[in-house]
């Protein structure tokens, strides 16, 4: 039988402190987890997500839903992969095309009007500065934190003057207006995304805009990628005996290091920021990437190894039209030391992320809910990797046991 310690509970002033003292007096050995359950009441946050139905957005929404937060998604209503099953039923959805003014999205206007506060905005879908400006104006000062999903392509339009991995401080435009226009013409995506960051900073400094955090992502890989880049390489390898094109790497990329980031790591970090953002992270940009910087050759070799295809050849090619799906930038890797220090960024180890990603796409080829994505992949293989489209069908049958209608050859 346990022994209770006698304690005298002296309490003046009553209220919450008195009750807390009483509880700890009765339960001197109360486990920390139980004490937290007694003391802390979970209050779901009101989170507005622009996007949330795509690659990174759906992974983030999944985590925030599991954590019990209240999500409102603003997008055009396209539910990719299986997001119609594990995201859509659990969120409020506002149909809106951000190519039009936010004020014309009546659902968004109503949402803002009836919200006392919006704890966080996570913006996956702003690709034009006017979209950010319209959104900030529509939100009317009710936002406590704005998380903007940016890109390492901003360094393509910046006056970087060194060859080391890009630092956040390198995202400064050239002083020459002529050079700025030249860079913008060469890399319109990076130019517009940097403009979006600049709008956030301007509103914050001059127009009472919300505190913000910008996350600059290199090429993202992982489950449910809408670009299919990883899956193309993986299926290319599996179907190689039925295709005419070798697995190729442009010669200049054989040893060139590449920054990549795993989708699950990004989603985990965004979830952490929504729940608690370090004060020193406010109004800052952060590079997020893996610790490792494999070359394209190493990426493909590791996929090949995970698929257990040791005899598959990967060929170097100098032709200008050689297929390359990674990387999407020319400035090289990014430096993640700031994210490590301020955000406690601890990305998944590369080999573990490869294993998980390969496993997902190997199962995706057979998953009923992924029928649309699978059909798009089959068309890609048939269009770009062989002059005999039905060989793809035969390969899927022989390797994966998938039976698609195969018309007879004409006599």
Describe this structure in words.
The protein is α/β, with parallel strands linked by helices and 411 residues long. It has a domain at 145-399: NAD(P)-binding Rossmann-like Domain (Rossmann fold). It has 15 helices and eleven strands. It has helices at 15-26, 32-39, 55-66, 83-86, 106-114, 129-139, 177-186, 188-206, 229-238, 263-275, 296-306, 337-343, 350-364, 371-384, 390-400; strands at residues 46-50, 70-75, 92-95, 120-123, 146-151, 212-217, 219-221, 247-250, 260-262, 284-287, 314-317. Helix 3 crosses helix 10 and helix 6 runs parallel beside helix 8 (188-206). It holds the Pfam family Epimerase. Residues 47-288 form the NAD-dependent epimerase/dehydratase domain. This is Chloroplast stem-loop binding protein of 41 kDa b, chloroplastic.
List keywords for this structure.
Chloroplast stem-loop binding protein of 41 kDa b, chloroplastic, disordered N terminus, 7-stranded parallel β-sheet, 411 residues, alpha/beta, two-stranded parallel ribbon, 40% helix
> Could you give the count of β-strands?
11
Rg over alpha carbons: 25 Å
Poorly predicted ranges (pLDDT <50, ≥5 residues)?
A: 1-37, 406-411
CATH architecture of the domain at 145-399: 3-Layer(aba) Sandwich
Mean pLDDT: 89
CATH class group of the domain at 145-399:
Alpha Beta
The percent range for helix content is 40-55%
Total DSSP helices? 15
The named CATH superfamily of the domain at 145-399: NAD(P)-binding Rossmann-like Domain
CATH topology of the domain at 145-399: Rossmann fold
């Amino acid at each position: 039988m346990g022994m209770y310690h006698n304690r005298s509970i002296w309490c003046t002033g009553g209220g919450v402190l008195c009750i807390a003292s009483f509880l700890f007096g009765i339960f001197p050995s109360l486990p920390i987890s139980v004490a937290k359950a007694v003391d802390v009441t979970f209050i779901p946050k009101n989170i507005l997500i622009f996007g949330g139905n795509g690659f990174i957005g759906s992974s983030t929404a999944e985590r925030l839903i599991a954590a019990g937060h209240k999500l409102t998604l603003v997008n055009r209503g396209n539910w990719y992969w299986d997001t119609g099953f594990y995201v859509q039923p659990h969120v409020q959805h506002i149909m809106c095309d951000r190519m039009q003014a936010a004020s014309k999205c009546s659902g968004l206007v109503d949402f803002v009007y009836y919200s006392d506060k919006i704890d966080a905005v996570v913006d996956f879908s702003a690709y034009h500065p006017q979209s950010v400006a319209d959104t900030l104006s529509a939100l009317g000062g009710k936002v406590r934190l704005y998380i903007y999903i940016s890109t390492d392509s901003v360094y393509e339009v910046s006056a970087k003057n060194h060859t080391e991995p890009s630092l956040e401080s390198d995202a400064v435009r050239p002083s020459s207006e002529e050079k700025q226009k030249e860079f913008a013409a060469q890399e319109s995506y990076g130019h517009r995304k940097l403009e979006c960051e600049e709008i956030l900073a301007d509103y914050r400094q001059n127009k009472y805009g919300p505190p913000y955090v910008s996350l600059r992502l290199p090429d993202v890989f992982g489950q449910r990628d809408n670009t299919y880049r990883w899956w193309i390489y993986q299926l290319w390898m599996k179907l190689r005996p039925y295709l005419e094109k070798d697995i190729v790497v442009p010669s200049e990329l054989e040893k060139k290091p590449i920054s990549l980031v795993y989708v699950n790591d990004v989603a985990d970090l965004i979830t952490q920021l929504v729940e608690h953002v370090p004060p020193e992270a406010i109004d800052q940009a952060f590079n997020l990437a893996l610790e490792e910087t494999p070359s394209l050759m190493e990426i493909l070799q590791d996929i090949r190894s995970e698929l257990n295809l040791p005899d598959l050849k990967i060929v170097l090619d100098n032709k200008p039209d050689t297929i390359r799906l990674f990387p999407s930038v020319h400035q090289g890797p990014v430096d993640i030391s700031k994210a490590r220090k301020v955000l406690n960024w601890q990305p998944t180890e590369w080999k573990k992320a490869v294993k998980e990603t390969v496993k997902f796409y190997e199962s995706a080829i057979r998953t009923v809910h992924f029928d649309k994505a699978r059909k798009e992949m089959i068309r890609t293989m048939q269009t770009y990797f062989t002059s005999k489209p039905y060989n793809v069908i035969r390969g899927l049958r022989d390797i994966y046991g998938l039976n698609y209608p195969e018309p007879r050859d004409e006599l």
